[in-house]
Give the backbone structure.
Amino acid sequence: MSPPDDIHSSSPQSFLVTGGAGFIGSHLVERLISEGHRVTVIDDCSTGTFENLCSLQHNDRLTSHSCKVSECRELEDIVQRADFIFHLAAAVGVELVVNSPIRTIQTNLRETEVLLQAASHHGTPVLIASTSEVYGKSLKPVFVETDDLLIGPPTFSRWSYACSKLMDEFLAMSFFKERALPIIIARLFNTVGPKQTGRYGMVLPRFIEAAKRDEPLRVYGDGNQSRCFSYVKDTVHALLRLASCQRARGEVFNVGSTNEIQISELARVVIEVLGSKSQIQMVPYAEAYSPGFEDMHRRKPSVEKLFDFTGFRPSTPLRDIIQQAAD
């Protein structure tokens, strides 16, 4: 295996980060700025906020556009000047997906199509942030990038997000094959940390907010469903490693932790770490979302391909992540 390019030794570059005012995007922008790069952010703040970038508000290496990618009049110029694009703009969160499926599909498909078209005009490399949701209802204990994907029926809006992000992947790979556009696809598994909000159903910030107020931690379903939680700074580091790896272009990668925990146990650990007086409250899916809601029982990635290409594995312990997010 050839070593990945050193992301710390490169000369200053220009980056476009769509969704850069969001949870993961803002951490990525901060990291890029701290390394001396110039960054342009496009974000309509439908789920993010430019308050996430308040520490950079006077930094002359950051330029921000508060609009959709598809409505940015300067998009062609921005893309032409960029050395690399991180496309993180997307509808996020289970509650948003269930309650606003039209918005979910239109946001994920339209914005990606417009961005890829612009990038293809100038040959600007793009990393597409996809999601573990594309694995759908698969019962495999560990997900590998080459697995077949099993999406639920269109009668359940729950699967609209997975389907739209999967179409993003197909579209990106089509631009790679047909127009030789340098593309990398990163399937992000549960990413958590500071600045994440529970407003759209994200489980860990919901638990932390409740525990800090000594309120019940609402666990949906039977609580036996399991997830692997990756620290946002680990995820950002993985994305930067992939961006600097020439071999990664035209490839799909899982990005996430491999430390699995059941949601009921996660609630218990949050209470313990924060010294909370909260109790755990079990809530049926039908009450939390809607009748017929389907969830993935397990969501554990193989990250061997990520390690093979970049030499990196996310590794921050869950208790440390909880404390950082709570602080």
Observations:
- Residues 1-9 have pLDDT under 50 and may be disordered.
